[in-house]
Design brief:
Number of domains: 2
Number of helices: 1
CATH topology of the largest domain: OB fold (Dihydrolipoamide Acetyltransferase, E2P)
Order of helices and strands: EEEEEEEEEHEE
Number of strands: 11
Distance between the termini: 71 Å
Shape: elongated
Strand order of the largest sheet: 9-8-7-10-11
Length: 155
Amino acid sequence: MSDVDLDFEPPAEASGSDTFPMRAGTLRRNGHVLMDGFPCRLTDVSISKSGQRGQTEVNLTGIDIFTGERHEDMHPCAHDVQVPVVVLTEYVLTGIDDGYLSLVGESTGEARDGIALPEGTLGRDIESDFAAGRGVRVAVTRAMGREAVTGHRAE
């Protein structure tokens, strides 16, 4: 036999990607797409008909899922665009300490700390419902290495 070392080691740690490619012509309203480097929920998708020699183009309008800013973009129908992997998880609010939320996953029992209380109306509504003694569930959206509270409901 030969003295060849057959002990293989993976070149890097396997992990999921933050985005995946998708054909621009297959995007639909309420889906997600990366616009100007920001993960956005599509509010309007329209396709412009091609001229005699032109390409069919897709006009996209979206709202940033974290900041609410409006973005617009245009792509040829046959080109690929990047779609962010967006994960929405619901947690039970157990406490608020110095502007940060203490959360527990209902199905997993996983405790989460360090997620900031959102600013504006959403943050004030969460605080007032929690102070009133209601059971509060918050929706945490994670995409592109960021996470933030994007909704809530009181019981």
